[in-house]
Amino acid sequence: MMVSTRGRYALRVMIDLAEQDANSYIPLKDIVARQNISQKYIEAIMNLLSKQGLVSTMHGKGGGYKLSRKPSDYKIGEILRLTEVSIAPVACLNEGAPECDRAAECRTLPLWAELNKRILGFLDSVTIADYMKKNN
Fold first, then answer.
1. What is the tens place of the pLDDT at every residue in 47-91?
2. CA gap 48, 4 in Å, rounded
3. Phi and psi of 18, rounded to 5°?
4. pLDDT (tens digit, 9 = 90+) per residue, 23-54?
5. Residue 75: which residues within 8 A CB-CB, separation 6 or more?
6. Is the dihedral of CA 48, 51, 54, 55 positive or negative?
7. Among the listed residues 74, 8, 82, 25, the one whose alpha carbon sits nearest the alpha carbon of residue 49
8. What is the mean pLDDT of the chain?
9. CA separation for the pair 41, 99 (Å, rounded)
10. What's the rounded Cα separation, in Å, for the pair 65 and 88?
11. Which of 14, 33, 67, 132 is the most buried (most CB within 10 A)?
């Protein structure tokens, strides 16, 4: 599994928003400045996150983005499933993949299936709240 730039940036943006005032809309230019990601790239990511209801948006003066839920309600796996074509370690485990002709006698399929289960289990066990800056 290789997480794309889009997936990595989406996680960074979501964590960034989680660290801001939950009652305020955060201007895109502020996120761009903190994350050092091009505005065009973040716009595409924010559009995707907004369409899927992960972030709320407000246009105009005082507008920007904020999380739609509490940071602890966002599983890392949810965000990566949204941004990645696949997070399966091998093609035959991709969602909707045609059944492999060799699946019945494939000696390595159980290995890949277990790895996939563990990856998904881990990604679904952590939230963006787990990766926010902790003020001690």
1. 999 999 999 999 988 899 999 999 999 999 999 999 998 999 999
2. 15
3. -65, -30
4. 999 999 999 999 999 999 999 999 999 999 99
5. 123, 124, 125, 126, 127
6. positive
7. 82
8. 94
9. 35
10. 30
11. 14
Enumerate the β-bridge partners of residue 16.
none
**Amino acid at position 74, single letter:** Y
Q: How far apart are CA 46 and CA 52, in angstroms?
A: 10
- Tens-digit pLDDT profile for residues 90-116: 999 998 888 888 889 999 999 999 999
Query: How far is Cα 17 from Cα 79, in angstroms, rounded to an integer?
Result: 14
> What pLDDT score was predicted for residue 135?
60
Token pair of 4, please?
A: 């794309």
Six-digit token string for 41? 């790239």
Q: What pLDDT was estimated at residue 136?
A: 46
**Number of CB atoms found within 10 A of residue 18's CB:** 21
Q: How far apart are CA 52 and CA 75, in angstroms?
A: 14
